[in-house]
Amino acid sequence: MPRTLDSQITVEKTPSYFVTKEAPRRIFNMSRDTKLIVVVRNPVTRAISDYTQTLSKKPDIPTFEGLSFRNRSLGLVDTSWNAIRIGMYAVHLESWLQYFPLSQIHFVSGEKLITDPAGEMGKVQDFLGIKRVITDKHFYFNKTKGFPCLKKSESSGLPRCLGKSKGRTHVQIDPEVIEQLRDFYRPYNIKFYETVGQDFRWE
């Protein structure tokens, strides 16, 4: 981590931290005062998005359905597949709560980050204990990508939009497969909502 002054906050972003078993202990040993921000989204949508991204790089991979289930007729979901395992948020959170109190972890709704980016960023700024500098004036909705873009400042030129890998159209998945995955995730989602005290309304 770079050296920072007492008046500064250092932010580091790595998507795999939340699901990496060793990460909580390592981060705790580095700094037990670390504040953690985790962006979560509907785990079924997240898995489909993950698959869509992988498919764009490896077009010859098996079908989403084939990777999601060990036995579909019995409803046995394959939790060894990363795209499925990552969305089991309640399981991953248990490891973090062994080292960090819930008061040091903030969960951002991935859905609201798209529909109300300023509102979600306001909550992040409050969690970090900093002045609300980023407001709705800093965002505009990019219809092509289907995501909000960040203006560098209220008056400056070029906005910062998500890269090419974000916002692509998801592959079409059999609605019955989606329903089976919703059923699979439901108990994990409920436990997650109860633990964090926030209902993300993924049902």
UniProtKB/TrEMBL annotation:
EC number(s) recorded for this UniProt protein: 2.8.2.-
EC class: transferase
Disulfide bridges in this chain: 149-161
Keywords for the protein's UniProt record, in alphabetical order: Disulfide bond, Glycoprotein, Transferase
Signal peptide per UniProt: none
Family listed: Belongs to the sulfotransferase 1 family.
PANTHER family referenced in this protein's UniProt entry, alphabetically: HEPARAN SULFATE GLUCOSAMINE 3-O-SULFOTRANSFERASE 2 (PTHR10605:SF10), HEPARAN SULFATE SULFOTRANSFERASE (PTHR10605)
Keyword Cell membrane in record: no
List of residues binding 3'-phosphoadenylyl sulfate: 41, 49, 166-170
Name listed for the protein in its UniProt record: Sulfotransferase
Top-level taxon of origin: Eukaryota
Species: Limosa lapponica baueri
InterPro entries hit by this protein: NST/OST (IPR037359), P-loop_NTPase (IPR027417), Sulfotransferase_dom (IPR000863)
One Gene Ontology MF term: [heparan sulfate]-glucosamine 3-sulfotransferase activity
Sulfotransferase domain span: 30-186
